[in-house]
């Protein structure tokens, strides 16, 4: 028996640092990935897909957002989709699950597990699903605890699915909310405990796994990175499951920390590093550059040209934190002529920059613009 | 550059074409009287250079000729060794033409080339300006230094740049500054305020944050609704709990059953009580009937005894009434005799009183007759005096008329005397008798001669004295008239003189007094207020007296017919006493009769009462006996006794039933308590129903709101709004960084440009210094960055504005000359035209200025327009004139 384990779709998520076009593309892709998951299940011969919580980003999504993933799953009638609430879409009164039930919005192949009790997965009584149900955003009790005593037929395959933080592997702060015992699978006789909450794939033990989000949604995903689903194959009720991860994400999120630029070569190298993430599809890249360093006048113009204009246009999102400073010296001033008000102004600004203090940053910006505008003036004069 | 020809047509005072004749290199002086058109020439020259040919603005209107027409201006000049021609026509048929040597430019192209040649810059649609505005100095402008802007400053800067080796970048700085200012304008205005665009972003950011706040509030409201909905549902479930409702309904049914039981007992009790009441009522009725019959029988026995006693007393009373009748008849007879005697005494007294009254009336009549006779005599005297008065006509009115007539005569005489000739004769003693006046001896007293008089002196002759004849006749006539009037008046009363009239008047006054006395006496006697009533009063009195005397005579005759009796011998007092005695006797008899009458009435009243009592007792007895027999006949006494016994048994039975019911009720709850319990439970169930309704409404409302919020996707909206607000915030921050950088760059560039400009000023001062040194020995100049001379230092620093008008004008002219020198030095076209300048300069300064201008004129053309020809004669320049032309001549 095979299942596909996924979680943290968070349909309806917004991203503040991207423009409107990129936002639309990212949101659309979080729906498109459902189709890829369904295709993966078919390809792997898995009849069930377990979604371990956080299907939705918000407790009160719009009607459109509420129904969109249901309609995507409806297209895969041969596959059973098993959904449980997460901390983002907890089963609160009048929450998304109530609305889906009330409006009969979930297709027949989508199972909403809203009660903490064993559910039969197949007609032969060989496999049972034990869902943990979050009924509020945060709880301090372990909702998987009931699985220890949950009755299932003798010899049946017991698969747990929960959303929360496993306690005891270095995430104690996070595990204060929605805790899950690290040995729950063993204590409850589970063949597999499918977990959600972490957005990157993470295997806690041979039977306990975080699948991560199928479409990456942040730069610091954690774990082994997101954009994957887990295919779990069961050889029997007690045998360890065989796990395999499969890439489902389309966008690649990458953060470059402490990028120091001191020359034109550094700039070109940086561009190449970013493009190297997906050389053929740079438009699938979201890059966050933490830039610092000092550049000469020409190199600064090069930075603006290569990074701030060219690379930004190539990527879905280029997020810049910090900027290289202008390393202008007396030699750079010569390009402004040997005398005249412009050179005098540049010299005065440079002096303010060198003096440091609160005004230095503004002077630095003013000096950069002086050099940039000087180029425009010269070009216009020619 | 040298102007060689200026032609003007249809400009202000020049309706016909004129030409400025005599223009040449160096100094040129156009000396002409006021209103000859000098200023018009300068205006035309300035318009040709700076005003576009298509202009319709005010400068064009200022050019219009007084008689109408299209201003037409032509200027010929040499430049870089080639002949040039500038021609402009404004208004109808406007044109612009510029010939630069062999090149010709027309229309807009000519305008552009002109502006380029003279370094002019458009300041509006139709005008351009530059340093040339400072070189064409109109009347009155020479007192102020030229203000420089835009192209003017640029021209000057270009001049100074050229003269300063090694100083560069001014143009780039200006371009840079313009670029920075343009970009900065996206973020802030020229005054440093936030730009419209940035303000829009700020407002959008505020709106976004407000939207976030609104959505957060809505989300909180939604959570409250969700929580409230759960609570409502729980309460609703509790309220609608069927088990609780069933228990409540069962309890209510039990209570209602008990209430019905208690109500049945109450009805039984009420019936038993009614039975008891009816039985007791019957019993009371029967017992009352028995008592009534016993009472009635006792009454009958008592009445029979009383009737027997009443009949005995009635006989005795009949005897007493008969005695009273006899005594009453005797008293009435005594009263009749006393009344007769009293009537007789009263008649006697009356007759005595009649006789006394008759004597009294007789005496009164005699007195009245005497008074009447006295009055009658007085009336006779009055009539006599009145008759005497009527025959005397001289009364007071006549005397006033007489006095007036006498006064007229006297006045006429006096006027005549005033006109008379005074004649006084004094005769010697021996002449007496020898002199005669009017035939009479000449009087020795003064005479007034009013008529012609004749004086005869014996032995001498006759003298005729003629008084003045003037008015003599009129005076005589007046005197005669007055005298005649007097005589006529006297004749009316039959008098011959005034004295006689006065005597008659005195006699009349005595007669009037006699009439008055007689009249007063008559009025007193007859007692009338006015004399006119005297006659009628006398007649009335006479008639009344006669009537009373006739009446008295009639009474006497009647009295005489009465018989003489004893009473006639009595006086009134005696008769009165007898009458009083009879009256008292009558009163005593009447009182006795009244007493007897009262006793008689008492006796008969008692008798009648006894008779009535007997009748009443008999009737009452008969009625009681009749009623008693009816009662017994209708309900025999034995039957009544049997019913009374039956009623006593019924009462005991009802009392026993009531006691039984009371015993049962003591074992049950009171009906009020049971009913209160039912009411309380019914209200409780009603309250639950209301609560269910209310909770259902609340649930429905909350569900509606929640559904609405769900449909809106509140969380998504909030996330989107927060993202939008965050982006706007970031945009604002970026813009602010950009604005701060550009503002700093702009201020730095401005500062650097100013510093650079200050460096340019040295050559400017250097260019102007020789001319200034010639005029002001040892002077040093101070020029600001706007190229204005702000001060000079001779012995000490002096502010320009503190100098005299003449000195400031000289300085302004020298500054303009310096500008022209700079332009010329740079190889640009330059001349200097001064209209009516330097008129305030003293002769020594003027001489020096002429030297300075003469020196400058060796390098550039200077044109002076003045109305003081004698002052500018020493300049010895080209003397210009305005010469009319037949037509505008365009050079070939």
Automatic annotation (TrEMBL), chain A:
A Pfam family recorded for this sequence: Metallophos
Keyword Magnesium: no
Superkingdom per UniProt: Bacteria
Keywords tagged on the record: Exonuclease, Hydrolase, Nuclease
Organism classification: Bacteria, Pseudomonadati, Pseudomonadota, Alphaproteobacteria, Acetobacterales
This protein's name: DNA repair exonuclease
Keyword Nuclease in record: yes
Residues annotated as domain Calcineurin-like phosphoesterase: 1-106
Gene Ontology molecular function, alphabetical: exonuclease activity
From TrEMBL, chain B:
SUPFAM superfamilies cross-referenced by the UniProt entry: P-loop containing nucleoside triphosphate hydrolases
Keywords: Coiled coil
TM annotation in the entry: none
Segments of this protein annotated with the region Disordered: 570-590
Stretches of the chain forming a coiled coil according to its record: 501-528, 711-745
Protein name in UniProt: AAA family ATPase
Natural source organism: Acetobacter lambici
């Amino acid at each position: 028996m095979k299942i596909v384990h996924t979680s943290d779709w968070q349909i309806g998520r917004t991203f503040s640092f991207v423009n409107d076009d990129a936002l639309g593309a990212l949101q659309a892709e979080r729906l498109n990935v459902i189709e890829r998951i369904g295709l993966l299940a078919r390809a792997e011969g898995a009849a069930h897909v377990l979604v371990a919580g956080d299907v939705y980003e918000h407790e009160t999504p719009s009607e459109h957002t509420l129904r969109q993933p249901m309609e995507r799953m409806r297209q895969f009638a041969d596959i059973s989709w098993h959904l449980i609430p997460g901390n983002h879409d907890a089963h609160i009164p009048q929450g998304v699950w109530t609305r889906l039930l009330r409006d009969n919005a979930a297709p027949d192949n989508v199972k909403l597990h809203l009660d903490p009790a064993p559910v039969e997965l197949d007609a032969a009584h060989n496999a049972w699903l034990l869902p943990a149900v979050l009924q509020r955003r945060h709880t301090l009790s372990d909702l998987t605890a009931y699985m220890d005593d949950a009755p299932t037929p003798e010899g049946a395959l017991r698969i747990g699915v929960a959303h929360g933080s496993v306690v005891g592997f270095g995430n104690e702060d996070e595990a204060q909310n929605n805790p899950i015992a690290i040995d729950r699978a063993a204590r409850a006789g589970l063949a597999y405990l499918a977990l959600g909450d972490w957005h990157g794939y993470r295997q806690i033990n041979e039977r306990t796994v975080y699948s991560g989000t199928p479409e990456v949604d942040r730069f610091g995903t954690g774990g082994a990175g997101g954009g994957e689903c887990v295919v779990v194959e069961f050889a029997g009720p007690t045998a360890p499951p065989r796990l395999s991860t499969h890439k489902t994400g389309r966008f690649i999120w990458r953060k470059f920390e402490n990028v120091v630029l001191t020359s034109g070569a550094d700039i070109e190298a940086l561009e190449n590093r970013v493009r190297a993430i997906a050389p053929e599809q740079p438009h699938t890249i979201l890059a966050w550059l933490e830039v610092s360093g000092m550049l000469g006048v020409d190199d600064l113009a090069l930075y603006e040209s290569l990074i701030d204009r060219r690379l930004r246009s190539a990527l879905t999102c280029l997020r810049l934190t910090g900027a290289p400073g202008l390393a202008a010296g007396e030699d750079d001033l010569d390009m402004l002529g040997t005398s005249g008000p412009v050179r005098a102004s540049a010299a005065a600004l440079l002096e303010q920059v060198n003096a440091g203090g609160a005004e230095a940053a503004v002077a630095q910006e003013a000096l950069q613009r002086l050099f940039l505008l000087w180029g425009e003036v010269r070009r216009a004069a020619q | 550059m040298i102007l060689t020809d200026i032609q003007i047509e249809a400009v202000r005072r020049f309706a016909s074409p004129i030409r400025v004749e005599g223009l040449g290199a160096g100094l040129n002086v156009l000396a002409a009287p006021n209103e000859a058109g000098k200023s018009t020439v300068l205006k035309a020259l300035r318009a040709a250079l700076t005003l576009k040919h298509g202009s319709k603005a005010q400068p064009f209107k200022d050019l219009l000729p007084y008689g109408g027409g299209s201003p037409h201006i032509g200027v010929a000049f040499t430049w870089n060794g080639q002949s040039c021609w500038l021609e402009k026509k404004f208004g109808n048929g406007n044109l612009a033409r510029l010939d630069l040597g062999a090149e010709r430019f027309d229309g807009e192209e000519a305008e552009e080339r002109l502006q380029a040649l003279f370094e002019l810059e458009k300041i509006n649609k139709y005008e351009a300006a530059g340093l040339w505005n400072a070189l064409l100095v109109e009347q009155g402008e020479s007192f102020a230094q030229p203000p420089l802007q835009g192209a003017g400053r640029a021209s000057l800067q270009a001049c100074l740049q050229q003269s300063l080796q090694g100083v560069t970048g001014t143009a780039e700085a200006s371009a840079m500054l313009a670029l920075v200012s343009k970009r900065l304008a996206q973020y802030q205005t020229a005054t440093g305020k936030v730009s419209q665009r940035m303000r829009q972003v700020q407002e959008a950011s505020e709106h976004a944050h407000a939207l976030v706040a609104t959505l957060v509030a809505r989300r909180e409201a939604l959570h409250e609704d969700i929580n409230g909905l759960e609570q409502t549902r729980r309460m609703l479930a509790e309220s609608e709990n069927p088990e609780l409702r069933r228990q409540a309904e069962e309890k209510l049914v039990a209570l209602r059953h008990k209430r019905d039981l208690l109500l049945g007992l109450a009805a039984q009790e009420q019936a038993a009580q009614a039975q008891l009441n009816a039985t007791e009522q019957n019993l009371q009725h029967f017992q009352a009937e028995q008592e009534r019959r016993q009472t009635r029988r006792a009454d009958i026995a008592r009445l029979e005894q009383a009737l027997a006693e009443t009949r005995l007393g009635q006989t005795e009373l009949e005897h007493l009434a008969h005695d009273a009748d006899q005594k009453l008849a005797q008293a009435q007879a005594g009263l009749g005799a006393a009344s007769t005697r009293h009537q007789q005494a009263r008649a006697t007294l009356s007759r005595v009183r009649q006789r006394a009254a008759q004597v009294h009336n007789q005496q009164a009549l005699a007195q009245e007759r005497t008074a009447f006779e006295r009055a009658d005599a007085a009336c006779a005297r009055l009539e006599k005096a009145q008759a005497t008065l009527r025959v005397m006509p001289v009364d007071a009115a006549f005397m006033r008329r007489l006095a007036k007539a006498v006064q007229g005569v006297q006045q006429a005489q006096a006027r005549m005397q005033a006109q008379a000739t005074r004649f006084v004769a004094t005769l010697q003693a021996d002449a007496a008798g020898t002199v005669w006046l009017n035939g009479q001896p000449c009087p020795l007293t003064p005479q007034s001669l009013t008529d012609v008089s004749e004086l005869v002196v014996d032995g001498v002759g006759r003298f005729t004295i003629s008084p003045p004849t003037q008015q003599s006749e009129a005076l005589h006539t007046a005197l005669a008239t007055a005298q005649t009037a007097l005589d006529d008046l006297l004749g009316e009363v039959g008098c011959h003189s005034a004295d006689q009239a006065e005597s008659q008047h005195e006699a009349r006054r005595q007669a009037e007094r006699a009439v008055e006395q007689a009249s007063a006496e008559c009025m007193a006697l007859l007692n009338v207020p006015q004399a006119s009533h005297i006659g009628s009063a006398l007649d009335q009195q006479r008639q009344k007296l006669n009537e009373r005397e006739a009446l008295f005579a009639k009474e006497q005759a009647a009295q005489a017919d009465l018989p003489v009796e004893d009473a006639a011998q009595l006086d009134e007092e005696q008769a009165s006493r007898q009458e009083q005695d009879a009256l008292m006797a009558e009163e005593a008899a009447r009182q006795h009769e009244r007493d007897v009458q009262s006793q008689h009435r008492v006796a008969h009243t008692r008798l009648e009462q006894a008779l009535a009592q007997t009748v009443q007792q008999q009737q009452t007895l008969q009625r009681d006996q009749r009623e008693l027999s009816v009662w017994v006949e209708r309900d025999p006494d034995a039957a009544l006794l049997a019913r009374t016994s039956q009623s006593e048994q019924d009462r005991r039975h009802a009392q026993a039933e009531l006691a039984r019911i009371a015993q049962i009720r003591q074992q049950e709850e009171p009906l009020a308590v049971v009913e209160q319990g039912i009411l309380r439970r019914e209200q409780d169930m009603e309250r639950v129903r209301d609560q269910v309704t209310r909770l259902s409404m609340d649930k429905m409302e909350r569900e509606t709101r929640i559904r609405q919020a769900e449909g809106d996707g509140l969380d998504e909206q909030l996330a989107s709004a927060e993202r939008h607000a965050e982006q706007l915030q970031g945009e604002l921050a970026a813009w602010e960084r950009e604005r701060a950088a550009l503002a700093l760059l702009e201020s730095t560039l401005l500062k650097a440009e100013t510093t650079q400009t200050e460096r340019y000023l040295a050559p400017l001062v250097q260019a102007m210094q020789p001319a200034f040194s010639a005029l002001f020995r040892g002077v040093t100049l101070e020029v600001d960055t706007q190229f204005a001379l702000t001060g000079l230092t001779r012995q000490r620093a002096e502010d320009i504005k503190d100098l005299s008008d003449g000195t400031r004008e000289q300085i302004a002219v020298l500054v303009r000359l310096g500008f022209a020198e700079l332009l010329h030095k740079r190889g640009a076209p330059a001349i200097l035209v001064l209209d009516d300048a330097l008129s305030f300069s003293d002769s020594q300064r003027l001489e020096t200025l002429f030297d300075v201008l003469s020196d400058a004129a060796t390098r550039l053309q200077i044109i002076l327009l003045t109305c003081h020809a004698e002052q500018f004669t020493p300049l010895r320049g080209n003397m210009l004139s305005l010469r009319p032309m037949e037509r505008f001549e365009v050079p070939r």
